[in-house]
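Quick illustration, no need to memorize.
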Amino acid sequence: MKATLHNRPRKGFTLIELLIVIAILASLGGIGYGVYFSMFDRGKASAAKQVCVQLSTASETFFQDHAIPPFDLNKFDSQEEQLHFATDGQADGGMITVLLGEEEEDAEGRRLNPTKQQYITGNIQEQAADGLYQTQDGTMAYYDPWGSPYYVIYSESDRGAVDPFIEKSRPLRGKHFLVYSLGPDQDGLAPISQEVQDAKKEAKKQERKERKKSKKMTKKEKEAAKEQARIAAEDEKAAYEDNVFSWKN
């Protein structure tokens, strides 16, 4: 009797099939990982923007209630029209402490916030990372989701503060306080100081000199200089756009 062979069902997978499955799963995992962290970063930016709005609104309200800013002006050496400082508990003149209503009396028994009204609220964090933080000397600081303090721009002028991120921008009427975060890469500090303004003037002078020299430059050198200028402009724009601005909502 002749034996017949039957096709038996194959058990398991070949090595090639396993490798293909692993590659597909890895690709899907990579896509999911990127989407997750993209959403995570957007969540941080949204949270930072909300704090920027909260701080600027609270400061404006305090200014309207007391006709003074919520910090000690005597603690600032700057004579510029606009003050620019970080909410790190050291450079802000006690701003966060005042807005929280936790300010202590001075030597003469006075407070900037005499009613101890809370213009902002929040839970105190154990580390200077994200949210309110109490420094060693007892003052309060405020940090963004990326571990950097927020930055405040204050103008006492009735015309309002000037947006420092726009060339030749006009004062924002009714806005004495602008608050921003440095964003994910901690870059893009607002160029509002007199030193930066002077540096810009010097750069323009240098640019005029370079233009005179450019007449003697070769075509290749001109193209290289133009490309460098383009890259520098893109880098500067990217740094500014990375910030979280309360007054651009």
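The first strand starts at residue 82 and ends at 86.
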